[in-house]
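Q: What would this chain look like folded?
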Amino acid sequence: MSHLSERPESPVVGVPMPHESAALHVTGAALYTDDLVWRTKDVLHAYPVQVMKAHGRITALRTEPALAVPGVVRVLTGADVPGVNDAGMKHDEPLFPDEVMFHGHAVAWVLGETLEAARLGAAAVEVELEELPSLITLQDAMAADSYHGAQPLMETGDIDAGFADSAHVFTGEFQFAGQEHFYLETHAALAQIDENGQVFIQSSTQHPSETQEIVSHVLGVPAHEVTVQCLRMGGGFGGKEMQPHGFAAVAALGAKLTGRPVRFRLNRTQDLTMSGKRHGFHAKWKIGFDAEGRIQALDATLVADGGWSLDLSEPVLARALCHIDNTYWIPNARVAGRIAKTNTVSNTAFRGFGGPQGMLVIEDILGRCAPRLGLDPMELRERNFYRPGQGQTTPYGQPVTQAERIATVWQQVKDNAGLADRKREIAAFNAAHPHTKRALALTGIKFGISFNLTAFNQGGALVLIYKDGSVLINHGGTEMGQGLHTKMMQVAATTLGIPLHKVRLAPTRTDKVPNTSATAASSGADLNGGAIKNACEQLRERLLRVAAGQLGGNASDVRIVGGVARLLGSDKELAWDDLVRTAYFQRVQLSAAGFYRTEGLHWDAKSFRGSPFKYFAHGAAATEVEVDGFTGAYRIRRVDIVHDVGDSLSPLIDIGQVEGGFVQGAGWLTLEDLRWDAGDGPHRGRLLTQAASTYKLPSFSEMPEEFNVTLLENATEEGAVYGSKAVGEPPLMLAFSVREALRQAAAAFGPSGASVELASPATPEAVYWAIQAARQGDASHNGRARGGFTVDGHAANGQAAPGHAGNGQVTGGRDRAGAEALHGA
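A: My prediction, written as structure tokens:
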């Protein structure tokens, strides 16, 4: 076992315990960024001047009327920026734009003594605009050839030979929607200036170091003049990885110019209309199978809706390409990627970071093709799993080293959920109920852990031991409710060999741990846990030498367990507090900076080859649904999950992450339906779903009636801290089983073996249209299809469901002759 993964005697890691702030959360005592405003004197409030047009050039901006509003102190414009007028890392996101790029784009900010004064001041600002043509939908952008950013291409094997060897070839298109983060706490920042002109910013950010960097370049000052602290976030989910930086810069600029603290907080409508979402995607694909249903070749193009600026669209697209294989070996593949430029908010990171989009494509393909191949969807998936000992690599060239876990979690779910018996029960139920159908689907995941950009895979920590034996830890990760701080305290206590109550954790600050990476890519525990372990090991080694001197032995023979140092083979012992006090009087350093870098990574973005991930996290989920044939309404009857978190650092935290991730994924795939006004009227480009009243989120009523989560046992990950694995993002993709169960339930209303297309999100409306298509034996109509399509070499006509955009077409070939006829071979 590696040094990094080995656990000492009586470790605190692995012990189930509640979130370290749980009591504060449920009592309302937990402080968030905006709570600090009421503890701060003379605060000014910032309010945006939004332009409610999708695209246009500003021809005049008159701020004088705002200054006449009582309580307005200042209006911030581009002329006030002393440094770089840009809120991003790509220099394509002007903080104060002269061109409006989406409906609701902020062009100036008003500072007021009260929020109401600032709001009235913003309403008084006069903006004249020369309207320009706008592209709202992904289809608009693709038709106009509107793209930006990288154009990655991932290739492996020989796809021409793969298709030539295929007994069955199918082609199709699939478009699926984005997702709103809808964190409980909206974007917020509080900026203050001290007597030396240094800037201190409290920000709800997943990436304090990058917030510091952006504020620094906007103000035109070196980074050491800017300190960013993140106390905690009321949710982030990726939405606070890049997008808080510009908002914090607005507050910092206001504080710098007025000398007073400036508070920034978006209300819910502003947050929904001004901040980015998960990228929606369009996929066009062609896939070949051999006679046994094994994938021979895949040719696909993925187009991500990037919105108006690049933000993180390039790495999101790269991760989508890297995850299109999911758990399946694809020997011959060519997958291309593009980023569409639209006049909507700039889409950004969201839990899974492109991985869910890539994996959804292959799962949708298999769900659609299984009936055409005459195979049960579970069987088709199993036949295509990566296999251990075969030397199989991903399409980008990384060996799949734990392929056996794909089958292990899959089989455990089968056993735990009693799938064989339940499938027979479902068949009997469906035969007896013509207007209600049930279905059971099983899907798996393989998700790569690490940032695609190798440089980001590093973490830092600062650990302080005080003379009384108490310990304070600082690390570069941020807490957004996911339990990272809880795990880090357990890591510190385990490494030092002391009880958990001896350890306290300080808020994340850039002046304690510099140059940190975002708390993202599910890497928070790996990177920061490795750094804390490193710092604590330095301290422990120093203290072992002190203890050896006191106990009369060698340092290598001393163990610190439960807060007591003991000499092996002796009954001598020394309490932790006494040991620390002795070390102080011997002038032994009682603080240490820790560092960790993930080893074994390499990635060539140009050739799209390498091993960008330290390891893969695995999981499988079985979901049973019941669907009403009259309305398309459905309920999730039961979910069974087995998930691989290695040796859990904190089992209660991890189970909570699995449950939450699954439900959030189910929301994306079944409920959350972003809609924009794509008409040519005065509100073109306006987000229509800009409140909880029009954007449906998962709630208690959508929770599975029976929800069983099991963590994979005996699953040590040699390459990670105390044998654990990441848990933040991977569980979200377990929700594919919900969508596939809905597809199968809709198909059950039609003739046996029907292939059903299903829109995403699979809202009750979409499920209803899928049921209608199944009843009519129209395998290619799913409520979002329009125009003509070809199935098995026969022409047919599909009608669009009311109110739905087009979702492309599908063609299928059940044999080589049919396939060749369809493809003009």
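Residues 779-825 have pLDDT under 50 and may be disordered.
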